[in-house]
TrEMBL record:
The gene is tsaD. GO terms for biological process: proteolysis; tRNA threonylcarbamoyladenosine modification. The keyword Transport does not apply. NCBIfam families: gcp_kae1 (TIGR00329), T6A_TsaD_YgjD (TIGR03723). This is tRNA N6-adenosine threonylcarbamoyltransferase. It comes from the Bacteria.
């Protein structure tokens, strides 16, 4: 079975082709991505209207490329999957509209996928795919959640951020340091030249006794520190970046270990853009090795948004019987859509 996946929830247009056969883990045949980062950079963040218009321009050429790369033709596609939410409404509508139009034209069913389920299942595309059950640390630009995952569509929320997401903490701190948008990767690169102990920054909710996170106070602390440094900031920027990264990573690490202990599970899956962070990977690897816990990550290129994870999640949902593809092409999108809401279905 061939699944074409389309991702357009925010500022990357992603298309991918996945082949699923029986109970085997579906296989990625090809994927293509267009990031709008350059376009939004001038505005310091994503401009929704520009994002929608650019998805319209990119999605069909990307689909053509993906099919050509896999040596397949459009009529061979069995299911067209798309990101139904959460994300920017106008951006989501482009992917949903194109997917449903393709499905209707081909006479093939369509399937709307939860963007975060895509992130969550993206490690199944890696060379070292996990097995169920596991604790998932979902750390992206808009979400920070710990989840107990028993199987496809069986997600129990253990804890989540009460304000900013981890990726947002990276991005907002990076913006304060003049590192552009999205600043997470830039801040992380700069941090490699800095001293992570140079500045004492807060570790919010570290000892809260639950599995929730809070990152809003951190950016204020970074701003305060930057102001205090004044003209001395440029010389200490790498130190401040390293200290910021260390604060975020320590909280993610401690809470992940607490979630493993609370659930008694022996496997951790990290997903979402912040999962690309080197310091986070090093610290999780070291701590989990000591505990005998296996850690799984998506391939670096598939940590941030992409079409492969959407095609993969669709194929896995179909294989698990968690959802059926539909020939009702009257699509809708869900800009706000908590992941645990799909569990009941
Ligand atoms: P969501 O999935 O919650 O809707 P999103 O799709 O915008 O949000 P992702 O694409 O998963 O989020 O990830 C983007 C985020 O990952 C950004 O905040 C970015 O700064 C962060 N990020 C990417 N690479 C790194 C890195 N190496 N270190 C830290 N943060 C990173
Ligand atoms: Mg993005
Ligand atoms: Fe995402």
């Amino acid at each position: 079975m061939l699944v074409l996946g389309i991702e357009s929830s925010c500022d990357e247009t992603g298309v991918a082709l996945v082949e699923a056969a029986g109970i085997a883990v579906p296989r990625l045949l090809s994927h293509a991505l267009h990031s709008q980062i350059d376009m939004h950079q001038a505005y310091g963040g994503v401009v929704p209207e520009l994002a929608s218009r650019d998805h319209i321009r990119r999605v069909l050429p990307l689909a053509t490329r993906v099919l050509a790369d896999a040596g397949r033709r459009l009529p061979e596609v069995d299911v067209v999957a798309y990101t139904r939410g959460p994300g920017l409404a106008g951006a989501l509508l482009v992917g949903a509209g194109v997917a449903c139009a393709l499905g209707a034209a081909l006479g093939k069913p369509v399937l709307g996928v939860h963007h975060l389920e895509g992130h969550l299942l993206s490690p199944f595309l890696s060379a070292d795919p996990p097995g169920f059950p596991f604790v998932a640390l979902l750390v992206s630009g808009g979400h920070t959640q710990l989840m107990r995952v028993e199987g496809v569509g069986r997600y129990q929320l253990l804890g989540e951020t009460i304000d900013d997401a981890a990726g947002e903490a990276f991005d907002k701190s990076a913006k304060l340091l003049g590192l552009g948008y999205p600043g997470g990767p830039a801040l992380s690169r700069l941090a490699e030249q800095g001293d992570a102990q140079a500045f004492k920054l807060p570790r919010p909710l570290l000892h809260s006794g639950d599995l929730d996170f809070s990152f809003a106070g951190l950016k204020t602390a970074v701003l305060t520190q930057a102001r205090k440094l004044g003209e001395g900031l440029p010389a200490r920027k790498a130190d401040l970046a390293a200290s910021t990264e260390a604060a975020i990573v320590e909280v993610l690490l401690r809470k992940s270990l607490a979630a493993l202990q609370e659930t008694g599970l022996q496997r951790l899956v990290v997903a979402g853009g912040v999962g690309a962070n080197r310091r986070l990977r090093e610290q999780l690897d070291a701590a989990c090795a000591r505990l005998g816990v296996r850690v799984h990550y998506p391939e670096l290129a598939l940590c941030t948004d992409n079409g492969a994870m959407i095609a993969m999640a669709a194929a896995m949902r179909l294989a698990a019987g968690a959802q059926q593809a539909s020939t009702d092409y009257a699509f809708d999108v869900k800009p706000r859509w908590p992941l645990h809401e799909i569990v009941a279905a």
